[in-house]
């Protein structure tokens, strides 16, 4: 049974004017091709699931993107993937998309791959994670706030790295100082760096 997620409605509604008809069209085509599709939000943009991840769509300030989870097995390779996420490049109007018939064929193919349990092509082996180095100013600020220190210590390496990168990538000392203060405040409240984008 197909499900529609109100968060996807909200996502489309707050997208740029040019993007709304594109997203609405993609959503309609996916539902028509896959009557049992389920909608969800992952990584803050709409995804469609059918026995696993099927495809996703996203809108940005000047373009949209649409792609299949196992896209390299479905859509012929081309230059479009270099320009944007997904397999169809930067989509700025409906005419940038393949026809409804072609898209439906791709969706059916993606469903078939999920039906038969085909895995996504293996990606190259991930690089060894960078060593986690806590800058002196962050270490000092954390040691002065036991709650923030406890939160930081309990974080996963990726959560720690998000704060460290945010602070060390500041262009000026003033920005770095502001970020350091904010980071300690957020961690004292138990918040990860990207807490604003979670559960949306």
3D structure, described in words:
The protein has 200 residues and is an alpha+beta fold. It folds into two domains: 6-115, Aspartate Aminotransferase, domain 1, CATH 3.90.1150; 136-197, no CATH class. The protein is 44% helix and 11% strand. The protein has helices at 6-13, 19-33, 80-83, 100-115, 136-143, 146-154, 157-168, 173-188; strands at residues 38-42, 45-49, 53-59, 64-68. The protein has a four-stranded antiparallel sheet with strand order 1-2-3-4. Strand 3 (53-59) and strand 4 (64-68) form a beta hairpin.
- CATH level 1 name of the largest domain: Alpha Beta
Helix content: 40-55%
CATH topology of the largest domain: Aspartate Aminotransferase, domain 1
Q: Would you tell me the overall average pLDDT? A: 86
Order of adjacent strands in the largest pleated sheet: 1-2-3-4
* Number of helical elements: 8
Kindly give the count of domains: 2
Helices and strands: which structural class? alpha+beta
For the largest beta-sheet, the strand count, sense and barrel status come to:
4 strands, antiparallel
Topology as a string of helices (H) and strands (E): HHEEEEHHHHHH
**Rg over alpha carbons:** 21 Å
Unreliable spans: 77-83
């Amino acid at each position: 049974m197909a499900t529609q997620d109100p968060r996807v409605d909200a996502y489309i509604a707050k997208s740029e004017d040019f993007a709304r008809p594109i997203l609405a069209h993609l959503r309609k085509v996916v539902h028509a091709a896959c009557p049992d599709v389920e909608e969800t939000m992952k990584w803050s943009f709409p995804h469609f699931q059918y026995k696993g991840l099927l495809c996703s769509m996203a809108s940005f300030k000047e373009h949209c993107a649409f792609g299949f989870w196992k896209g390299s097995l479905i859509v012929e390779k081309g230059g479009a993937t270099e320009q944007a996420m997904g397999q169809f490049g930067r989509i700025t109007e409906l005419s940038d998309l393949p026809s409804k018939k072609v898209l439906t064929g791709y969706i059916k193919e993606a469903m078939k791959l999920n039906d038969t349990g085909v895995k996504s092509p293996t990606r190259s082996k991930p690089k060894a994670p960078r060593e986690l180095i806590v800058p002196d100013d962050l270490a000092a600020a954390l040691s002065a706030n036991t709650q923030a220190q406890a939160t930081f210590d309990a974080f996963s390496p990726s959560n720690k790295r998000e704060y460290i990168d945010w602070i060390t990538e500041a262009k000026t000392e003033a920005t770095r100082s502001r970020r350091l203060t904010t980071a300690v405040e957020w961690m004292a409240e138990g918040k990860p760096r990207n807490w604003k984008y979670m559960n949306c």
